[in-house]
Amino acid sequence: MDLLPLDHPRLKENNFDLLRLLLAMAVCLVHAAELSGFAALQSLSGVLSAQVAVQAFFVVSGFLIVMSYERSSSLTSYTSKRLRRIYPAYFTVVILCALGLVLVSQRPLQEYFSLAWLKYLAANLSFLNFLQPSLPGVFESNRLAAVNGALWTLKIEVMFYAVVPILVYCLRRFRRLPVLLLIYCLSVAYAELMTIVAAHTGGGFYERLARQLPGQLSYFIAGAILFYYLPFFERRVGYFVAIAAGVLSVNFLFPLPLLQPFALATLVLFFGLFLYAGNFGKYGDFSYGVYILHFPLIQLLLNTGWFIERPWFFLLSAVSLTLVGAILMWNLVEKRFLLRSSHYVGATTQAETGTPVKQPASL
Questions:
Q1: Which domain holds residue 264?
Q2: For 247-272, b where at least 16 C-beta lie within 10 A, e where not — what string?
Q3: What is the pTM of this model?
Q4: Total domain count, the chain
């Protein structure tokens, strides 16, 4: 089956920028409720799900990153695009936290800049934040001492980036659909096995293993399947959406682990590719900044102790600071590392000059 042309209507005009921003904001709101523990905000955790939002992020990545590799002229080109998109902002956040949070540390200066500080820097800069999630004396009076608990998903994302060239090689060498379905099923089986073992042993270790790449790969693969078979999906989109909605409804009462990832992917990509809502990438993509900045900003606000009696003012402050930080991160860091061929460079040109610039989906 041939790949979709770059001028395919669904790839030129889509809602991925808006979708990712909404997902990032959902994670921000849930973390604000969970980290604060404010009773007035607990309804947010009932209405929104950070877990589902992260899974939806993985679906979008599965679609766009596989497309990025298929459209890249070489492995070097693909690697360059991925590094430019994800690492500059990530590096900036880690360094800002490592240097700036000394101001709120409860430890003396010499104890802050210690071996633990170096371990934090090394672990987080290499996407291994689970090895050292906290800094000396920082946020110790908060409900959770972790500096940036949202970064665990970036490790999975980077591992998926590394897997994609191998995946595509297998898809080109063997029959595409059987390979994709096999990987999808193995991923679901792994996650279920770890969940069962965790339930019998009471070990959180196995729950964490279930959340890692083998267990999350089904969401990436579901996105990749819909990329490769988008024309088929388009022709039968009504059936796909109706069945997916039914599966997810039943999943609330009776877990359907084999079907849930693909059902979620169907609804996510239906929103991303259909019912075009406008060019939300015109002024940039702030979703990544929202995602990697919100956690430490929430922790900082809670650390002040100012918001104990003002939960809604706390939430407004957290959201406002996160959005401002994301806008600054985009303009000062992220877009400066993008290639001129980037979707966002073209979108910015269109916004500034009024000249239409046709671009494929965000890569």
A1: 9-353
A2: bbeeeeeeeeeebbbbbbbbbbbbbb
A3: 0.91
A4: 1
